[in-house]
Design the sequence.
């Protein structure tokens, strides 16, 4: 008789757990829907040489609160980001690549959405020089640095040998 009661209790417990699990799974399902007729604002972040700021951290601040972000995300591989503003006004959007480059943009949302650049984005210099930020200039600068360090090491090595001898 004890064996029968244990089996019955175990079967009841098993059925209870299975039923409980399936109801919990149904209550936490997921789904999606496409948002049509939404007011979208899209912006593209890039470096001074035109290279996109891929996967940069983006913070969006609403016109009502500049302390706590309304949204945070990342740019895509092309440096683009889009959001759905819910009120009119000047939205502040910052993009930070985590390597010292920060770009700020102000997006004015109103009856007719317009984009305007911030007065002076941080981390951006506009010298007007045609080679500024070009890949060739970066390669030449890197090679120059390496050669100068090698010449300095050779100079000090010869100086030490001459000082000993």
Sequence:
């Amino acid at each position: 008789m004890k064996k029968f009661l244990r089996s019955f209790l175990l079967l009841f417990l098993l059925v209870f757990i299975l039923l409980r699990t399936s109801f919990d799974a149904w209550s936490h399902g997921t789904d999606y829907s496409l948002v049509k007729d939404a007011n979208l604002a899209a912006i593209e972040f890039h470096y001074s040489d035109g290279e996109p700021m891929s996967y940069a951290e983006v913070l969006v601040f609403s016109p009502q609160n500049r302390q706590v972000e309304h949204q945070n995300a990342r740019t895509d591989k092309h440096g683009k980001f889009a959001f759905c503003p819910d009120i009119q006004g000047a939205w502040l959007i910052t993009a930070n690549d985590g390597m010292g480059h920060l770009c700020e943009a102000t997006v004015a949302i109103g009856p007719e959405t317009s984009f305007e650049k911030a007065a002076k984005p941080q981390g951006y210099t506009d010298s007007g020089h045609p080679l500024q930020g070009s890949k060739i200039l970066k390669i030449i600068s890197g090679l120059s640095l390496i050669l100068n360090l090698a010449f300095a090491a050779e100079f000090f090595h010869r100086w030490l040998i001459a000082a000993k001898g």
Q: What stands out?
A: Strands lie at 41-44, 57-61, 71-74, 80-83, 89-96, 102-109, 114-117. The radius of gyration is 30 Å. The helical segments are 2-27, 135-164.
